[in-house]
Amino acid sequence: MPPTEPRLAPLAEADWDPEIRETLAKMQDPLSGRVMNVFRTLAHHPKALKRWLVFAVHVLSKSTLSGRDREIAILRIGWRCKAEYEWAQHLAVGRRHGMTDEDFERIKLGPDAPGLPANEALLLRATDELHDQARISDETWAGLAHHYGKEQLIDLVLAVGNYTLVSMALNTLRVELDPGYSGFTPADRIALSLDADP
Predict the structure, then answer these.
(1) Which residues pair with 35 in a beta bridge?
(2) What is the per-residue DSSP string for 172-190?
(3) How many Cα neighbours within 13 Å face the side chain of 140?
(4) Higher pLDDT residue, 91 or 28?
């Protein structure tokens, strides 16, 4: 089984300097009120965290995509990147946007999952293409353009790019799930081949 011990432990509150404290004060988990492990881990590099958060806040809360559409893309890239922390966090965010267990199962299955509306299948296909080829094909782009405007298309690419970066950081640093969040199920772990040695 792959190692799970964090490579960098979340920075303890006693070790927060005033700059880190100011940055992290805005990053509390809506479920627990505590600062999430991802931010406490990235706080080991406070300047990078502060600069990245400007972009991350745009992607998560100022994007022109609807919350549901944004979460479809974020959950799919989290699934494709095998980023359990990201998946767990965004299941909760997705639920706040009205998503259901059935929606999450379709996201796992991908763009050919039965019962997907056309725009959601295109979001999943675009996310897969960005993951696999670092670009969206002409056919998928044309399909998306029937449903989304120019700013939304840019926000889609930025969301997938940001959460690919986040997945890499989470997986590499082995950020532990926050209390109260559920990660991958045993069936998910099998589907993603997570328990095999690398």
Answers:
(1) 28
(2) HHTPPPPTT-----HHHHH
(3) 19
(4) 91
The encoded tokens of residue 2 equal: 């792959």
Instruction: For residues 153-172, give the mean pLDDT.
Output: 98
Domains of the chain and any CATH numbers:
64-191 (1.20.1290.10)
131: tokens are 């993951």
From CA 137, how far away is CA 183, in angstroms rounded? Answer: 31
Token digits for 28? Answer: 């509390």
Whether 153 and 161 have beta carbons less than 8 Å apart is answered as no
Sequence-ordered alpha helix ranges (H) in the chain: 18-24, 37-42, 46-57, 67-80, 84-96, 101-109, 118-133, 138-145, 150-173, 186-191
Distance CA(163)–CA(89), nearest Å, equals 12
Q: Is the pLDDT of residue 1 over 50?
A: no
The size of the chain, in residues, is 198
